[in-house]
Amino acid sequence: MKIMRKILLLLIISLVLSTExxxxxxxxxxxxxxxxxxxxxxxxxxxxNASFGFxxxxxxxxxxxxxxxxDMALRPASNLKLITTAAVLELYGPDxxxxxxxxxTGDIDTVTHILHGNIIIKGGGDPTLGSxxxxxxxxxxxxxxxxxxxxxxxxxxxxxxxxADAGIYxxxxxxxxxxxxxxGSYFGAGASGLSIDDDYYTIFFNTDSIIGDTAKIIKIVPxxxxxxxxxxxxxxxxxxxxxxxxxAPYCNIRYLRGKLPFGKINFGVKGSLPDPAYFAAYELEKxxxxxxxxxxxxxxxxxxxxxxxxxxSGHQTEITTTYSPPLSKIIEQTNLYSINLFAExxxxxxxxxxxxxxxxxxxxxxxxxFWKEKGMDIQGxxxxxxxxxxxxxxxxxxxxxxxxxxxxxxxPYFNAYYNSLPEAGQGGALEGTLEGMFKGSPADGNLRxxxxxxxxxxxxxxxxxxxxxxxxxxxxxxxxxxxxxxxVTAKLxxxxxxxSELKK
Length: 504
Fold this sequence. Notes:
alpha/beta
């Protein structure tokens, strides 16, 4: 009897294993086109020394379509914005608007039309004030509106100053983990409680036709007060911008290094504003003077006043309030064009809701806990900023897929989230950072994804519809690849296209 039982048990085990094997073979065959491309990538010389992770699931069933190192923690670059934008959308909703208040202290003399006090710009974390990305914010329309509002109070002279208050966020506007190489460039603008003009300026160079000669600075737009450049940029045979703007927040010295193409006129290079809040006060003060309003003292900020031992006292009376575009529209621009500034503000704004503080490092930890409470396994995850510029960020493909899947299945704001992602092959604004990819392929018009690119990092995550109509959620991240960024992009594009070609 014992022998018979053992034989029967072995037969059952054999049957189960053969069934599972058959199912696995069947699944592998159904997804053969994806696995073939994946196999080529794994053997590709550009990936030989790289760390690569890939995870794709059926959005409806949760079934794994294909997988390779899904739990490997990798630098996500701008794929981190998928997590940041999802969180801020969940916390505030698509219709939320940031507020910037214009206020005054003291009293207005109705006879002499003198304001015996200060004009205060009270920042509310709005990253879009004066932004080029929206019709209602570009060209500094708010300065005209504020000037009109001040004149409507019959003020023609100010006995104090224009003072910027960015205190809603931490003064440490750049995360500690950002590199010296990045923080002076336009994409290295951190979260300020009061931003203006997307927090960047442009240096225009003329480059000599002689290789090695120093490029000549022609102009700075807009003109930033007190900014000093130590220029070491030279003309060379490079095809594009290979220059660097080095400098820390609140420091007015900028070190220019690197190379620009020779023989160019008005070649623009963008740098991050050293002190966005102060620059907002400076711009308003200049606009008021141009409109005939006299101002006794120079523009300043709460931070600068406190450094000198001064402070603003007295009741503050509201003059007017400026509202940002809806959060959904800001998220759309953030993911379409991968705007680091917006993502950093989203992180700090999320921190205000989650822990009552807007300090990048603390907010990043709070965001990890936010997703943990939603059911994510955060083992291996490390967040130190909101946009992915930090070299210390680490996320697994499975974790990104979790967020994408959560937003689809559980978020009431999924449409706003989904529509913020660049759309393959659609041309114009809808393509965003996917511009030029997937033309004429099955993914054309059927894929929405966020790209991520930084030194030796490439990532793509999003949603794709297959030929059979299945919706697939995917994430692929590669770190430390060989070859060029363009070459690696082309190979990952084939993997995404393969997902769109699945017929079952």
